[in-house]
Amino acid sequence: MKQLAIIGSTASGKSDLALALAQEHNALILSIDSLSIYREIDIASAKPSQDELSLVPHFGINRLCPNEAASVITFIDEYHAIHKQALNEGKNIVIVGGSSFYLKSMIEGLSPIPNYSHATLEKAKSMLENPKECHRLLSSVDPKNMEKIAPSDRYRIEKLLLIYLETLEAPSQWFKAHSPQPIITDCPVVEIKIDRDLLRRRIAKRTSTMIQQGLIDEVSELERLYGRAPNSMKAIGIIEVLDYLDGKTSKEEMETRISIHTAQLAKRQQTFNAHQFSLSASGSADELLPIARTYLK
Predict the structure, then answer these.
(1) Residue ranges of the domains in the chain?
(2) How many CA atoms, within 13 angstroms, populate the side-chain half-sphere of residue 31?
(3) Nearest Cα residue to 145 out of 166, 133, 160
(4) What is the pTM of this model?
């Protein structure tokens, strides 16, 4: 079994390249995308169409309800599932997606977490009714580590609080004593590079297409079913539509804001990728295709 990871900014052509390679080299696809993981968020996530999904088995898509929380653990579980199926069926794996933070976490590995007792879980649940107070507590026992974490970052506060309550150690000391264990090994990483002006045009065109396909109706139905509290409802392409539905912007302004915010996201993705990965190759999708083939042969 061989593996390949494709990274790049949103709208750079990652999914098309992954699909072409998977069909050509007997591979399964693992999507690492913070929005495509959700069922019912189809247009806003720009996930592959049903026809595309039917061509190659995909993991990491349509796995959660919009009111559930996705984390790196979600994608670790998806990786274990695709890895098992690939071994059983003699297939390769192509990993693709814009949420490359999750990919980095799986390549570098995560420190194991303690086995939490029922008492710890219940105590943490009660304390997390006041996340800012939890942040103050953790700052008193692990000040240097907590400097990097905002009082509003409930996910990370919960993670560290559980470790502290179970072990009575500063979380940084726990991580120091328990070295990370890589989840993904032997996986070259290639990055699609794309001209900035071309990327902006693609983003604008994709945004227009999403609206034509029914983005506003999709977001309206998501709000009816799940409200606005879930993290998934704060994604680019959703939050701008909600503002439009509230009468804060016109339809034209909504479309412009989605394009601008998506372009800003693309820039952040490019910056992250440039500093966080040791690449095996980079270039346009056309340039990468023959190179990527060599990793899957």
Answers:
(1) 3-109+183-296, 118-177
(2) 26
(3) 160
(4) 0.83
What is the rounded end-to-end Cα distance, in angstroms, of the chain?
A: 10
Residue 60 Rama label (left phi>0; alpha psi -120 to 50; beta): left
For 127-177, the pLDDT digits (tens) are 999 999 999 999 999 999 999 899 988 888 999 999 999 999 999 999 999
Confidence of residue 268 (pLDDT cuts 50, 70, 90): very high
Spatial contact of 96 and 12, defined as CB atoms under 8 Å apart = no
pLDDT digits (tens, 9 = 90+) for 224-255: 999 999 999 999 999 999 999 999 999 999 99
Per the CB < 8 A criterion, the answer to whether 98 and 33 are in contact is yes
Strand boundaries in 41-111, DSSP class E: 58-59, 92-96
Considering the four listed CATH numbers 3.40.50.300, 3.90.25.10, 3.30.230.10, 3.40.50.720, the one that applies to the domain covering 3-109+183-296 is: 3.40.50.300
- 280 vs 190: CA distance, rounded Å: 6
Tell me the CATH class for 118-177: mainly alpha
Torsion of the alpha carbons at 277, 57, 109 and 292, rounded to the nearest 10: -30
Q: Is the CB of residue 100 less than 8 Å from the CB of residue 276?
A: yes
Contact 95, 187 (CB under 8 A): yes
Q: What is the rounded CA–CA span in Å between residue 90 and residue 180?
A: 29
According to DSSP, residue 232 is labeled G
Strands (DSSP E) found in 115-228: 189-192
Cβ atoms of 194 and 269 within 8 Å: the answer is no
d(CA 115, CA 117): 6
Instruction: For residue 236, give both structure tokens.
Output: 């680019």
| pLDDT tens digits, one per residue of 127-136 | 999 999 999 9
Quick one: which of 193, 195, 222 has its CA closest to 283? 193
